[in-house]
Protein 1
Amino acid sequence: MPETTPRRLPRPLSARGWSVRTRVLSTVVLFMTMGLAVTGVLTYAAQFRVLEERLQSELEQELSELELIAKDTDEEGEYQHESVDEVLRAATTSAVPSDNETVLALIDGEPAYKPFQQDFELVGEGVPGSAEMLAEIERLHVPGRTVTTTVQHEGRDLRMLIASVRVAGDDAAGIFVVAADANPPQAELWRSVATFTVMSLLALLVAAVLAYLVTGRMLRPLESLREATEQITVDDLERRVPVPEGRDDIAALARNFNRMLARIQAGFVEQRRFMSDVGHELRTPLTIVRGTLETTDPGDPADVREAHEIAIDELDRMGRVVGDLSELAASSRPDFVRPRRTDLGDAVRSAFSRLPHIGEREWVLERTAEGTVLLDQQRLTQALVQLAANAVRYSEPGTRIAVIADRVAGPAGPELHVAVRDQGIGIAAADQERIFERFTRVEGAPGSGSGLGLPIVRAIAEGHDGEVRVESTLGEGSTFTLVLPWRTPADGDTGDESAVSEGPTERPGGSSR
Ligand code: ADP
């Protein structure tokens, strides 16, 4: 595989735009500001409305007291106050205006009575704007009616009630005025608004500082993770990011990242090893062919014939290696193994029928389990042919080679064991693990295989979620067993048997030996 991986990341993925911290912070501040603003506006709007209602009801209270006085009767049912003057005098002198409230009685346009004590006066000697106020009252007054209105006067924001007072049998026109200055209670409310605003700003500031510190603390591991990831390049896959203490998301992220790095690193190491193995494997036949041709006398037909045979032999070997390599490369593809509904007995018998062509041995199909299973028949045949070819290569002609397919109870459920047993040279215990690695040949073993046969068999087993086991004794023989999970097709799984080719699977490059 050509090394196309960029040597460095295109550019460090440092925090561009808004960092998470800034975003968290601005979100906290934004939401708090919105919350406080909405709370403040709603609360104070309600309070201002309550204030207006209170002022209005105070004015009405004075009016109802006036009405009570006007309707006041003695025991005989006679009215107590029989003239406008009497009514107004009684009403004003008994009135006790609340804070910021004033009461005034006019008779025929002239100020007549006022309470003994009140916060301020609208009309009177030395009262600023007295004449204007008098004119204003006259203007607003509607005979026979009670008027409520708002008047700005001398810096006061007055809520005024102007009631016309008439008494039957009296020609005098009385006016009863109650006014409340809304400024002082409003000013008080505004002071409270200001206090609320200042406290809210302080709370916002404190929250922002806390959010800044807390998010900084929380995101520190993420920040060091980011810095570490920036440092890691393809040439430096040894590095690991620090895993913060605890079991939170960031620790999990760091652990997963490190695991991913380990996998990538293993992949790179494997890729390099693969490249050097392949280079080494292909160099040997090339060297042999070149050496042979260099030493061949072109004029000597016998020499040329011998060189020709050697070259063909070596090129065949190269072909086998290349074929096996591409097979091995394909084994990493997800569709390398395509399990289908297969009749196990038929599949084993069909594969077994091809084995005697590999070499002259005593071929025995000891037994085979029966049943419909899910497996890739082509790949199973390919693995059996490979194992049989090895058995032939490492045993003497005439010796026995047995094939056995069994259903065995495994730790995680039933298993399918397909074994090839030979009476060949055997494999030393020390080599039994190693032989499944690429290009591994046991020293002193005869033949010149590619060293890729067993890795392909293993890839086929793993493609079925299984494995290959070997039992062997030097000088006595070996048994290679494919151990696959016994999978039966689910109901309704129509697996296409016809899609499984019946022909033997030749390894590319003609390596079926
Ligand atoms: P090769 O193409 O060399 O046979 P394999 O991967 O098939 O490559 O096998 C790797 C090595 O395992 C062989 O070189 C041989 O030493 C050993 N081996 C494989 N099968 C047998 C067997 N049936 N008996 C003895 N040795 C075996």
Note: The chain has three domains: 15-218, 249-326, 334-491.
Protein 2
Amino acid sequence: MAPTSDGSPHASPPAEGTSFEDLPLHEKLKKGVQEIGYRVPTPIQRGTIPHAVSGRDIVGTAQTGTGKTAAFLLPVLERLLEEPRGRILALILTPTRELALQADGFLRKLAGHTHLRGAPVYGGVGMADQERALHGGAEIIIATPGRLLDHIGRGYVDLRSLRILVLDEADRMLDMGFLPDVRRILGHLPRERQTMLFSATMPPEVAALSRQFLREPKFIQVEERTVAAVGVTHLALPVPSQLKLELLLHLLQDETMTSVLVFARTKHRANTVVRQLEGHGFSTGVLHGNRSQSQRVRALEAFRAGRHRVLVATDIAARGIDVKDVSHVVNYDVPHEPEAYVHRVGRTARAQKRGDAFTLVSREEEADFARIERLIGMTIPRVRVPDFPYDAPSRPPPGPATAARRPPSPERRRGPPRSARRGFR
Ligand code: AMP
């Protein structure tokens, strides 16, 4: 944490030792906090919650991993407890589907004892469910800017009752080119509202945005590291083990998953995953102990150069490998050793300082996964992937004589054709 002097506009959070009991939150929310497993508020929470609950605008400088999501969700919930239901009262804008899903996962838990409902809204999935949520099914919308604008363009999104706007990861929205969309959305919102802006860094464009759209904000700044890589969005995707492959294929439809490191528990499982992915047209390399040194080097080079979109690895083979620009880590299997999780996800935040980590968790792996959460001191939200047919029987694998044996065409090497892939923003 970086305490700042009283003379600066940046407030440092109150001293450690503050507990959730000391924060101005309703018992219903404290119950949610307890159930999600948070014992002590993090610095960004201690700093933000009292001011945000009193209605102040907030500029929070904090990265993923500091507890910033609950730092804005809890005051949002507190302030909306007494509001009439059935209309959109708060909007949380996030740059990626992963962050939207993560915030939605936390919201479900934290709001568990309230009547308030949230809905994630992002691209790449059908519009109909989201339209229903936007029509009065949810009070808190967690949206990526592009998809929200699509809905707004269709004329049924009523934002007139909106009380609170949260801009999450504003610097990442800038990096991804979303600030014009954010400004357009701001044009649709009532002027009389509370606005909170969170950003890991404060580039001039973000500072300008906050000067233009926030009123006398309280500045809260924390620099805090957690055990697991800072900047990583962690999601747990509960799934029956026999559907893991289907789910991985489903996830890979997302074109923002540009370079994906997949971890499997054994060589055998790694080989199976590779065969299946190749059979479905994804160019895939493999790293495990049965591969010769030169095979490993070649696989790594192909991944680094972007010729393989996916690299499947076992933990031992992946030790010490250095790959920049890994967009996603997918834990196909939960590691037995909790420390392995930290090594694995550390790969994604390296170069870009941010990335996403999905863990496919079967019922049998829940206990191992809980050990990981204890080690890294985080509750990782469980998320159901919308549009994934959890109840459908699993597809038979493609026969070895068909797709997998054919030499890959250029499109096949890069994954499915662009038109078949789906963006999630
Ligand atoms: P965030 O920075 O919001 O992405 O949160 C990072 C991680 O910290 C998430 O897994 C949260 O569940 C967890 N977390 C947030 N607040 C607390 C807290 N007060 N105590 C323990 N873990 C927390």
Note: The domain at 232-413 is CATH 3.40.50.300 (Rossmann fold).
